[in-house]
Amino acid sequence: MSRFLIVLAISGLCAGAASAGTKTYHVNVPEKVVVGSAELKPGPYRMKLEDNSAVFIGEDAKQGVVARVEVTTESKKFERTEVRISRGSGDSERMTGIDLGGTKLKLVFPN
Question: How far apart are CA 67 and CA 44, in angstroms?
Fold first, then answer.
């Protein structure tokens, strides 16, 4: 009986550790944008939320682009992922936020 309880306890710990992992989201950047202090080229990215940061990892990149982010929760889920871009004066567009489809998470990137 004690062997069964030990196996059950270890299984529970492993399951808890697996669910505590960082969630990855898929974001398509439609055009060249500045996020934080870095520039993202157009294309698909994997994005991870870590503390107060969003880490963007492109398909060909080994290293991610890190940007400070504020995460808020809305009352209902977003139907699709939308990247919000500010078109200010000058040549650069700035990513101001992302609504994550299938979640209630709204990301805001401060300037």
Answer: 17
d(CA 24, CA 29): 16
Long-range pairs of 46-50 with CB within 8 A, sequence gap ≥ 24: 47/98, 48/22, 48/23, 48/24, 49/22, 49/23, 49/25, 49/107, 50/22
Inform me whether the pLDDT recorded for 74 exceeds 80. yes
Neighbours of 78 (CB within 10 A): 16
Q: What angle do CA 63, 67, 68 make, to 5 degrees?
A: 145
Confidence (pTM):
0.76
Write the burial class of residue 2 (CB in 10 Å: 0-12 exposed, 13-18 middle, 19+ buried): exposed
